Amino acid sequence: MKNILILFSFISIFTIEIGFSQIKFPDSEASKGYEYKEVHARVAFPTDGVNRIWVKGSAEYPSLKVRDTTSRIILETILKPPFYTSVLAVQSNIVNVEFCGTKQNCIEYGKLHPGTYNAISKDNFSILLYGCMEPFQIDYNEDGTPITKIFEGEKNSSFQLRSLFKNVAMEQSIQFEDSVKVKQDYQFNGIKDSTLLMGTPKLIITTGDQVYVDAGYGEKMKKNQIHPLSAWETKRRPLPFNNSETHYIAYLNKLYNASYSFNEIEAAHSKLPTLSTIDDHELRDGWGSQKDEYENGKMNPFLEKHYNLGKEAFLEHQLLLSNKSSENVRDLLEENKSMEYAFEVNGKKGYVFDLRSARDINSNKVLGEKQWKDFEGWLNNLERDQEIILITSIPLTLRPLKFIEDVAKLFKPELRDDVRDGWSSKNNIAERNRLISLLVKHRIERDIKPIFVSGDVHKSALIEIWVDTNVKRNSKHDVYETMILGYEVVASGISHEFIKTGLSKSIFRLLESQNIGDGFIDFNYDGNRASLYPMVRKSVVAQNFGAIEFDKDEKTKIHTFIYNQSNDQLEQHYLELDFDKKLPDDDYYRIVKKGRKEKKTFVPPIPHGMRVIK
C-alpha cells in the first residue's frame, strides 16, 4: 500500500504541469444530436408544490435571467464557481432561461416546463429510467494522433435510442407492430399508431454513471500520447493523470458540459424532473472495490481530493435536482455523508440507495450502518399493502459465475472491480442477504411489494423474483410454498461505447452476456435456509432505457426499450406485475405431446408484450 502511495505521489509531481487543456470533447455532430454547450438548464423536482429549475452557467456566462411567457424577467441571479450551479423556485409553469456574460452578451438557452409534474394525473403515470451515459469514443487521425468522436453504434443506434427516449418523454405518437403473449409465443396484434406508454411520463430516474470521469476508458494511449477524454489512467487501480485540484475542476466542468449536450436527452429534461443515484464512474472506476481507497478506515489522501471533487460535482449537477433542499444536498459533502434519500410520486413511495459513499471492500461494507438505520426506519413507517420503488445502482439479482470471476482476475485485472462491485461478490454477500431478509420479512408480514430499479451492467433486463423461505436441499423451491418477492428492471446503457479491442472485448462480452439472475441465491430467514430465484423474463446486452407504468385500473408494468442489434430495430418489451400469482402455473411450462404422453418442461415465460418500432 505504501509503495503504491509513494509511486502515486511521484507520478502526480511529475505530471503536475500536464493539465486538462488536452481534454477535447467533440464540438458538434448534428447527425448524432450533439451540440456542445457550456450553459445548461433542466427541470428540478418540485418541493412543497413549488416549481423549480436547475441551472448551470460558466465563468464566461455567470449571470442568469429567467423570463415568463410574456418575456417579463421574473428572476435574476449570479451563479458562483466552481460549477456555477443552482436550483431555483419559479412561479410560472413555463419559463425561458438566459445566461449573460460580463460584457452583457447573452445566450438564450431555451424553454423549460417546470409545471408539467404537478399537471399530470395522480392515477395513471409513468417513470422513465436510464443510466450509463458514455457517448464518447476515441478515434485516430492518419498520423496516429488520438481524436474524440460521438459513439455511433450500429447504424447510428445511439441516436435512434435517444430519439425514442425523447419521443416517449414527450408523449409523441409512434407507429409500431404490436404483439401480445399467447401461451409461450407472441401473437401479432396489428400495426398501431399511439404513445408507447398509456400513463403520462411524470419523472426521470437515473440509475448511475450519468458521466464518466474516465471517459473512453476502454482505450489505452500509446507511449507519449495524452488521453483526450479521461482524467484517470486505465489500469488495475486507476490513478489520476494530474493531481491538481484546479485542473480537475476544469475537467469536471467540461465533462458535464459535454454529457449534457445531447439534444434529445435534454428535451426530456426540459419537461420532466429527475431523481438521481450515484455509481462509480462519477467518482473513479470501481470506487470502494479497488482495495486502495481506505487503510484502517481512513481514506487514501492521494485519492481523497479527486473523490471529494467528483462527489461535489455529482451533488451540484445531479442530486441538486432531487427533492432535497440545496442546503441539505451541499451538507452531504461534509465528512463524506451518504446520499440515500426517500421520495414519493403520486402516492408511490420510493428509496434511493447510495452504494458508493460508505463502500469499503477491506471491511466488507456497502451501505454503512447509518444508511441501514435510515432505510429500516423508512420501511417500518410504511403503511401496509403497497408497491415501493427501490433504486440500487447495481442489480440485486446479478450473480457472476465463479469461473468468469477467475478469468477476469487472471487475464484482465482492471475488470475485477466490476466483479467485486456486485451484490453477490463474496465481500458483499452478507449485506445482500441482510437486505433480502429484511424485504422478505416486510413482504410476508406487511405485504410490502418491492420494484427494484438498477443499472451499471450495460444491459437490459426484466426479472420476476421468487422466494422460498424454507428450502430443504439443493436450493430447490417447493412450488407450493414459493411466492413472488418482487420484480426488477435493469436500465443501463442508453449510450455506451463497448470495449472493442482484443482480449478486453472477449472478456467484457462474456461478463455482460451472463443471464442476469442465473441461479439461486441462498440466504437465512428466520433461522431457516431460504432461497431466492430471480426468474429472467427478458435479458439482453443492448443499448436501452426503461420505464415503470402505474394505472389505477390495471396491473403495474415494467418496460424496457432496446436497440436490437441482430435485427437492426428498436423494440419495446413489457411485463405485467402480479404479486399474487402462485405456482404451479401452466404458463411456466412448455408441454410437448408425443402420442399419448406429455412432456412438461419448466420454461420461464416471455414478457406479456413486445412492440417493434417502425
The radius of gyration is 24 Å
Could you list the spans in which at least 5 consecutive residues all have pLDDT below 50? 1-19
Q: Describe the global form.
A: globular
Strand arrangement across the biggest beta sheet: 15-14-34-31-30-29-10-16-17
Estimate percent helicity. 10-25%
**End-to-end CA span:** 56 Å
Total DSSP E strands: 34
- Major sheet details: 9 strands, mixed
Strand composition percent: 25-35%
Quaternary status: single chain
Instruction: Quote the average pLDDT.
Output: 89
Number of helices: 12
Class by helix and strand content?
alpha+beta
What does this structure look like?
This protein is an alpha+beta fold and 614 residues long. The protein contains twelve helices and 34 strands. The strands form nine sheets. The chain has a nine-stranded mixed beta sheet, covered by helices on one side. The protein has an eight-stranded mixed beta sheet with strand order 20-21-22-23-25-24-28-27, covered by helices on one side. Strands 6-5-8-9 form a four-stranded antiparallel beta sheet, with no helix packed on it. Helix 3 (157-169) packs parallel to helix 5 (263-269) and helix 9 (402-411) packs antiparallel against helix 12 (502-512). It is globular.
